[in-house]
Amino acid sequence: MTRVLGVLVVLIAVAMAAIAAGNFGFGPVVITREDEQKLVLLLGRVRVVTSPGASLRIPLLEEVETYDARWLHLGTKPLPIQTRDGEQLTVDNYVIWRISDPVRFRQSFTGRMVNAFDRIDGIVRDDVRAVIGRHTLSEVLKERRGAIMQEITNKVRERLVEDGIEVADVRINRTELPEGTEKSVYARMRTERERIAKKNRAEGEERARKIRAEADRDARVIVAEAKRDAEIEKGIGDARAAAIYAEAYQADPEFYAFLRSLQAYEKTIGTNTTLVVSPNSEFFRLFESSGLGREGEGGN
Q1: 44 and 101 inside one domain
Q2: How far, CA to CA in Å, does 176 sit from each of 21, 75, 165, 287, 289?
Q3: Helix (H, G, I), strand (E, B) or coil at 35
Q4: Would the pTM of this model clear 0.90, i.e. be above it?
Q5: Does residue 131 form part of some domain?
Q6: CA atoms of 250 and 147, how far apart (whole Å)
Q7: Is 185 domain-assigned?
Q8: Dist. CA 264–CA 158, nearest whole Å
Q9: Residue 39 DSSP code
Q10: Are residues 149 and 171 in the same domain?
Q11: 158 in a domain, yes or no?
């Protein structure tokens, strides 16, 4: 029994040692983590291990190479680019990528990451320069920025897929004007904005003149129509008044004459009014007919 326990202990120790050696790439056990993918090489034959866990290999005969399975970030150096309208830009971008086929990746770059970095950087710089060079400054900065980035991503992805590399995205970090041309570009932009502002002001003034002219014309039409209607109503009123006067006169001519005279006196003679007229004037006919004139003469 003791001998059996000793054998089990030895076997467990050997297994643990094999697993520990597998973590460092030695021994018959190959340990693959979730963020890794491995190639097991034997006499030109390649076995790919991508599933996390333990697998076996032939010690001393099979060689194991480990590659990253995660998405990786690669930033590129600032790149001077001339746009279609002749503007100079300094573009700083980055790439999100991963090793999708470790066999092709090993064949393309002999398993060296630095070679892959150089290859990705060169392709990205070429495609960024080519695509941005076909667009204007305003399109790169604002109008078509998203579409430009998508076009660059598609081109880079197509060129690197044969190397076992999958590209998720190519993005611009910064888009800056070179120091020497920044002032001239700003001056040109300011001139363009001033031209647009003058055009808008001129169009606004022209519309204002038209609106004022239409308002004046409408006002004149409204006033003329109001005066016309007023004259019509006045004429109707005068006609009705004349008809009423005529009816009153026909009904009692003497009373009508008396009433009209009183109205004339009321309008003519006010407080502290002095009149110099002949006593025989028609204006005082009512005073004479009422005897007021004779009383006045007797008093004189």
Answers
A1: no
A2: 52, 16, 30, 108, 112
A3: coil
A4: no
A5: yes
A6: 98
A7: no
A8: 111
A9: E
A10: yes
A11: yes
Residue 13's identity, in one-letter code, is: A
- Kindly list the distances between the CA atom of residue 203 and the CA atoms of 160, 200, 210, in Å, as whole numbers in the listed order: 54, 5, 11
Domain span holding position 83: 72-176
Measured distance CA(192)–CA(8) in Å, rounded: 87
- State the amino acid at position 46 in one-letter form: V
Read off the tokens for 129. 């320069």
Cα separations (Å) of 62 from 43, 245, 258? 8, 136, 145
Distance CA 80, CA 278 (A): 114
How is residue 165 written in tokens?
């590399």
| Amino acid letter, 288 | E
Q: How does pLDDT run across 114-172, given as a tens digit for each residue? A: 999 999 999 999 998 899 888 888 888 788 888 888 999 999 999 999 999 999 999 88
Question: 60 and 107 share a domain?
Answer: no
Domain assignment of residue 41, yes or no: yes
Where would I find the H helices in the chain? 2-23, 102-109, 113-132, 137-138, 145-160, 179-251, 253-268, 285-290, 292-299
